[in-house]
User: Fold this.
Amino acid sequence: MSQTGSVWSEGVEPGRQAVALGIALVLTIVAIDVLLVGELSFFFDLCFIVLCLGLALIVKPHDFFTVGVLPPLMMLAVFILLAAVAPGTVARPDDAMVQAVISGLAHHSGALVAGYATCLGTLALRQRSLRQAD
Assistant:
């Protein structure tokens, strides 16, 4: 099967829409996890990694950079939001906002590294595939 016209080579979403989708989905994942468990759990970590892979697969090639920098920014935004409204979901309930953000990032750093590596690796493979097709 030729890769011409495939999702792998062309993507389906421009960068801005991929970013909006990523933010909407990560907030949905957070809401589900917090409602079910009361804090961010391993479920969030797994979903975050899959989300990073999905975003790297759907973005159009000219917007690779946009999605390439998205995973750490998404995770930071999640922890800032949670530290502001419900610090007990990412740290101890009496932690200050900055400490809650740092605690959240530290506790979920494995997911951040795995998601970011998955995203960048997928984008690199797609870029290589596009160069070989030319």
